[in-house]
Each structure stands twice: as C-alpha cells, then as structure tokens.
Amino acid sequence: MTRSELIRQIKTKRSFLCVGLDTDINKVPAHLLGHDDPVFEFNRQIIEATADLCVAFKPNIAFYESRGMAGWKSLQKTWEILPRECFRIADAKRGDIGNTSAMYAAAFFDQQASGLGFDAVTIAPYMGHDSVQPFLAFEGKWAIILALTSNTGGLDFQTVEDRNGTPLFEQVIRKANTWGNAGNLMYVVGATRGEAFAAIRKHAPDHFLLVPGVGAQGGSLSDVCRYGMNAECGLLVNATRSIIYASAGTDFAERARQEALALQQEMEKELLNKGII
Amino acid sequence: MTRSELIRQIKTKRSFLCVGLDTDINKVPAHLLGHDDPVFEFNRQIIEATADLCVAFKPNIAFYESRGMAGWKSLQKTWEILPRECFRIADAKRGDIGNTSAMYAAAFFDQQASGLGFDAVTIAPYMGHDSVQPFLAFEGKWAIILALTSNTGGLDFQTVEDRNGTPLFEQVIRKANTWGNAGNLMYVVGATRGEAFAAIRKHAPDHFLLVPGVGAQGGSLSDVCRYGMNAECGLLVNATRSIIYASAGTDFAERARQEALALQQEMEKELLNKGII
What confidence score (pLDDT) does residue A195 get? Predict the structure, then answer.
C-alpha cells in the first residue's frame, strides 16, 4: 500500500487505528475452543467486528510462533482474510545481516515464497543499515523501525546520549532517514513517550509513526496527537489488549467493536480539530 | 545444557565449532530436490557428516521462515534430529516487550507449546531488560545477546560512544551482566572485530562468546582465539557457508566434513596451546 492510499483510507474511515492481533490461545474465550483453529476463529470475528473502524491490523508474530507449526498455520489463515484495504503489519521485530534479512523480508513480503504478503514489517535497528535495506528493496512495502519503544526496557539503551547529546533513538531516526523515505519507512514510538514526540517530529516531520502503548500500557491518545500528528495525520495508533480482550465471554467481538468505536470516535475528533478531514 | 556440560563437550570433541544451518533452498544440491523435504534432507546429511567435529548447531530461523509453513516444518524436523549432546542454538535475533518476549521464549524453548526445545536463542538487545528476561526465566536455557556483530551495519550504532566514551556494545554487555550470569548468558561478537575482543573480555571474562564471521565473512580464527579465548575456552565459533556450501555437488556432505575437520584441527591446536586439553 502506498503512502497516499494509506492517507486516503485514514480520511475515508476517519480513523488511524491499528488493531493488534496478539492472540494468546490461553485468552481465547472458552466457547471458541471447540473450533478447529480457535485462534483463527477468534481473529476472524475480531477482524469482522472492527475492520470498518480501523485502517490497519497488526498480528504480533510471537503469539503465533509460540505454537510452532500450528501457530504458523493460524497466522497464514489470518493473513488470508485481512481486508486488502487495510494496512497489514507483521509485528516481527526482525533484523539480521544482509543476506539473512533478505530471507526475513521474503518471509513476510514475498507471497510466492512464504504464503504471506504483508505491507510492512517491524524491524529492530541494532544491526544497522544492511539489516534494514533488504526490506526496502521490496517495491510498495514498508520497514517500520523501532525508535523509542513503550516498555520499561526501552530506556535501557534507546535514550542513552552520544558525545553530542543525541539519544540513540534519534541517531537511529537520522541514519534510517538516509536509507529510505517517508514512502517506505515508518518509526515505532511508544505512546508512553509523549514528551519525545516533538523531538522525533523534528527529525521525521513527514514519516508515519506506529504508536503502540495506548490502552493497556497507559499511553494517552490526546498527548500522542498533540505532539505527534502532522498535516496528513502521520500516525497509526495501535491498541491490542484493550480491544481484543475487552471481554472473555461470548460477547468478545461485540465488546471489541465498542472499544474500537470509542477510539475511532476520539480519533475522528482529532482529525477534525487538525483540519485533516 | 549447562555451562559445565558444554565445557566437557568442548574438551571431549577437542572443538568449539558451531555449524550454521542457514539452509537456502536455492543452494541445495540438485540431486536432493526430488526429496519430499530437500532442506531437511540437506540438513540431515550435513549434521551426520559434522556432528562429531562440532559442539553446536545453529539454524538461522530466517531461512526457514522465508518458506512459510513448509519452512517451519523443515525446522521442526531438523530440530528433532539435532544430536542431544550438541548445544542447539536458534539464531532468531528476537526481542519484544515482556509479555511478547515470553511468547518468543516459548516458541524456541518450550517443546510442549511449540514442538521446539532449543538450548539457546539469539536476542537483539535494543528493547532492553524486559525483552531479555523472559528467556532467562527458563531453567537450563540460554539467552545469547547481540553485542558487536560481524556485518558492516554493526558499526552504525553498536560502536557509538556515550558521554563517558563507552561504546553501545559495552553498555549492552555491562547491563546484561546484571540480568543473568555466565551460566545463562552469552554474547555475540563477530570474528571480524578482532581488536574488540580484549575490551569485551574486560567486561565478560567468564561468559561464552558466540562468534560468527569466520570463513565466508573473512574473520580470523587465530585472532579470535588470541584475544577472546579464556581459561575454559569461552568461545563458540560459528562457520556456515564455508562448510555447508563447500560443494554444490553430490559430494556436498563429504566436503562439508573436510571443511569442518580443518576448523576442528585448528581449534584443537588452540585448545592445546592454551592448556585447556
């Protein structure tokens, strides 16, 4: 999906919500456990209940890998039903030396090779340029690079300043800006890092930011918008647990929809305030 | 596998060789392509030809994921035939927020959950302590943290110095030392970084180092030993392409054995010189 198509979807749906599909088989409601593939059935109902309220879906690959071959099968089937008008993110946090990163890029982008054709993959930048470039070599696909993450460990190294006072996450953004552009690169910035958005926008005014941490992790949507929104929105805000686990009962999909709707309505206000729609 | 058991294996086999199983289906010799699962058959013959010469095997997960479900099946079958006296490393370079890293740990350590029960997983440290700790929570398993990698991009961020002149890879080692110990943590240091081993040994005198980059990537085994070996060896030196792709013909396994044997013989000399055997 191109940048302009993504912006068009945001304006049409009046939403910049990304729904995380971090489906833990131990949290799937009991009434689904009789299905052949309860994780897929759970995802199917969540997708159906929220697809008109969000512009992106983001399965976190760990939750599928943890179940080995059975999990990979759930992922494959889930990918196949993700609506094509939604931006499809493989939250995989991959990265390796060049020839190996090319294999990871094939895993998530090259449908003929792997069966999966996501629009974007999240990438850990520790190994530098040749770990990222193979993802950028895929026309029309995106690399989403970890910059400042939402977890407590995000402060262990990402905010350490170099001799010039530049924190690591800013070094990452500055360097990565030279590897790609606002049409094939995004950055992950945790919603819990409200105060850092201004600094990040200085270095990446046009890039989309993928923002996890709203909801269960405690980040504030209005802070994220105040400091992070640009003239074309420039934000994909992810919520996972607050949506997909809103209820553990037979009403899980309906409750997921209510949670997604509440976020979409907040987002619509932000888009209106900013004059984007 | 415990640290003392690993050391015993090194002394018994007079080797600290790790054979990388980065099996690219496009490089599998033509005569194997008629097999049900050519990647597994290739691995089976490589393992059989080299198991007495090495102490560890290290499939790089990217090469399996790139083939989707079929690749995951090859990985599963390969894991099942890895000799139990060998240290089995999933080279996956994973890492995510705490609850998600726990899923990755299950993917590679928890045989009941995923079908796989590796001894160790490689981890990218960008996301800090809570991305690593779930791996250390598994008794008898190891986290192998990227410190200074062998690729050119390894110099983009890993050697950037903080205000005190400490490069990032040393910050990683110092901090990670507080999360685990020499019995459950190793560090990845590229063989191409000969000069850095002395600095690393200052901070991690007892830890094992996993050293890729000998062979195709141009690192020198004797330099690695000169600066990196400790009194109990403390090294697992990986070679992949120089061994598994030594020949593209029907003699590929025999040639792989010759290459592994040459490295084992060099390693035996180093172990003798150091008085370890």
Answer: 78
A179: domain range? 3-273
What is the secondary structure of A100-150 as a DSSP string?
Answer: HHHHHHHHHH-HHHHS---SEEEE-GGG-HHHHHHHHTSTT-EEEEEEE-S
Tell me, what's the pLDDT at A77?
98
Q: How many CB atoms lie within 10 A of CB B128?
A: 24
B220 C-beta neighbours (distance < 10 Å), count:
13
- pLDDT per position as a tens digit, B163-210: 999 999 999 999 999 999 999 999 999 998 877 898 899 999 999 999
- Measured in angstroms, the CA of B173 and the nearest CA of chain A are apart by 11
> Which 64-123 residues of chain A touch chain B by CB within 8 A?
65-69, 71-73, 76, 93-98, 100-101, 103-104, 106-107, 110, 113-116
Per-residue pLDDT, averaged over A33-47, amounts to 98
Domain count of the fold of chain A: 1
User: Is residue A82 left, alpha or beta, with left meaning phi > 0 and alpha meaning psi from -120 to 50?
Assistant: beta
**pLDDT, position B237:** 97
Closest listed residue to residue B22, CA positions, set B215, B218, B245, B235: B245
CATH number, residue A134: 3.20.20.70
* pLDDT above 90 as % of chain A: 94
**From CA B53, how far away is CA B265, in angstroms rounded?**
9
* Residues of B forming the active site: 93
B5 touches chain A (CB under 8 A): no
